[in-house]
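Feature request, filed as a ticket because there's no other form

It would be nice if the structure record came with a short human-readable summary line next to the tokens. Right now we just get the raw output. Example of a typical job, pasted below so the devs can see what we mean:
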Amino acid sequence: MAKMKQLTRAGVRHVPEMQQLIRDFVCNVLFAGQSEPPRFDSRFWPSDKTVRNCIYSTRVKAAYVLLCGLFGFWLFSTVDYNLLNRFHIGNASYVVLLRALLASLQNCLQLFF
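Raw output as currently delivered:
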């Protein structure tokens, strides 16, 4: 799992590509000069679903860290929606959109983490 997370952070996004890189890593690094582990050992030969889930969770966590860095002061504090109404944006729909966006970000990120 650690190698898959590292590869995902390096930019691998597709299951077949990830499996090829894992195969190369297991055969050429972990078991160099030895016989391969059995194919049914999921520690070394993860299923498509496991690879897909690892890629997804690693990307979601990376997005979460990025959003926390960009919007952390909004996400982890109480948003004063009355303060938003004091700003003159020119169109009230922008205020409604901004409120909805902030509320959605708070709710979505709390679901994942």
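Something like this underneath would help us a lot:
The first helix runs from residue 2 to 9.
Confidence is low (pLDDT under 50) at residues 78-89.
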